């Protein structure tokens, strides 16, 4: 499988396209939750431990940002 940064670039591009499509249809789209789901799916398919560590770090960063936002509200 490709390196995690290329995977992330592809996933983010895909999610932004989904946001645009949802916006055009007048629907709400939770980017952070959808990104987390996609990363968790990719994580289960990866075999390389270094790549898994990078994806886990990204997931932790997303969770940390969510908890900081919750704490501030």
Characterise this structure.
With 73 residues, this protein is mostly helical. It has one domain (4-72). It is built from three helices and no strands. Helix 1 packs antiparallel against helix 2 (31-45) and helix 2 (31-45) runs antiparallel to helix 3. 3% of the residues are buried. The model has no long low-confidence stretch (mean pLDDT 83).
What does this entry show, briefly?
The protein has 73 residues and is an all-alpha fold. The chain is built from 3 helices and no strands.
Describe the secondary-structure layout.
Elements (H helix, E strand, L loop, with lengths): L3 H21 L6 H15 L3 H24 L1
Helix pairs in contact: 1-2, 2-3
Provide the residue-averaged pLDDT.
83
Approximately what portion of the residues adopt beta-strand conformation? under 5%
Q: Helix tally?
A: 3
Q: Tell me how many strands there are.
A: 0
- Alpha-beta classification: mainly alpha
Unreliable stretches covering 5 or more consecutive residues: none
Query: What is the helical fraction, as a range of percent?
Result: over 70%
What's the overall geometry?
globular
Largest sheet: none
| Termini separation | 39 Å
Overall number of structural domains? 1
Listing every helix as H and every strand as E from the N terminus to the C terminus, the arrangement reads: HHH
- From the alpha carbons, calculate the radius of gyration and give it in angstroms: 14 Å
């Amino acid at each position: 499988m490709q390196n995690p940064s290329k995977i992330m670039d592809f996933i983010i591009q895909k999610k932004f396209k989904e946001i645009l499509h949802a916006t055009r249809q007048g629907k709400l789209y939770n980017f952070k939750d959808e990104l987390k789901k996609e990363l968790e799916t990719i994580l289960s398919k990866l075999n390389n431990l270094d790549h898994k560590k990078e994806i886990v770090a990204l997931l932790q960063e997303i969770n940390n940002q969510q908890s900081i936002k919750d704490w501030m509200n």
